Amino acid sequence: MYLKLNYILVIIVILTLNSCNKDVDISDDDNNNPVTERIITLENSYDLQVDEPSGLSFYEDGNFMTVDDNTNKIFVISPQGQLISTRNYVGDDLEGVTYNSKTKTTYVVLEAKRKLIELDTLDNILNEWSFTVNDGVKKNGFEGLTLDIENEIFYILNEASPGLLISWDYKTNKVLEEIELHFATDYSGIFYDKKDQSLWIVSDKSQKIFHTNLKGELKEDFDLDYDKAEGIIVDSDNNYIYIARDFDSNIKLFVYKLSQKK
């Protein structure tokens, strides 16, 4: 009996030690990296010299691009919101813009017509593509545009009714996926982050920044204290977020610092 009890105790000790030696990982759903909460802090705000900015994109020489849905023109601006130049192209209900630094081509979307337009450096139209959104309302059409340059995949936002994330392959001219979004009231700007292959989405009415994977699944979000956020770009190397706001006389380019919560 005594030997039997000793045997049982030895087995229990061995099992307990094995259990204690196992690694315990607390990870997120996408990259098996530890989950750490991040925050944004407003660092600067600049007057934006564009009447009704919509969309933001990185451009050449450290500058940005935005479109004006009032004049339907494309503008090059500095990181401090100063107007650098005005492009020649005049569109129809422009709402989003992105730039391919490899091919030097510019892309814009037309909201109501749900068209994607490709422009060369002289603003000649090289191509245009039309998209169909079932049961879509024209006034809530295409609102945001961004590009994964390496894979030539575009990500297009349909603003609302329904809110959609559309991924489209430039090489094959095919819609790869059309995902209905439900985490905000509307979707007004989008940016592809090549550093971790993710998306940043801003919402005017929900007054938030959302960080998602390429399926539109939420990773984290950040509150804004204003509406009318219409464009977003993210400098992940330096942890800066830029937001374009279109609100009457308070048209701004906001600069936020992204950091770990202490």
Task: Describe the 3D structure.
This protein has 262 residues and is mainly beta. It has one domain: Neuraminidase, CATH 2.120.10. Helices cover 7% and strands 49% of the residues. The protein is built from one helix and 20 strands. The strands form five sheets. Strands 1-20-19-18 form a four-stranded antiparallel β-sheet, with no helix packed on it. A hairpin with a 4-residue loop joins β3 (64-68) and β4 (73-77). The radius of gyration is 23 Å and the shape is globular. The N and C termini lie far apart (57 Å). The relative contact order is 0.15.
What's this, in brief?
The protein is built from 1 helix and 20 strands. The protein is mainly β.
The total tally of domains equals 1
Biggest β-sheet, characterized?
Answer: 4 strands, antiparallel
Low-confidence stretches: 1-35
Can you tell me the overall shape? globular
Question: What name does the CATH topology carry?
Answer: Neuraminidase
CATH superfamily: TolB, C-terminal domain
The neighbouring-strand order within the major sheet is 1-20-19-18
Tally of individual helices? 1
Structural class: mainly beta
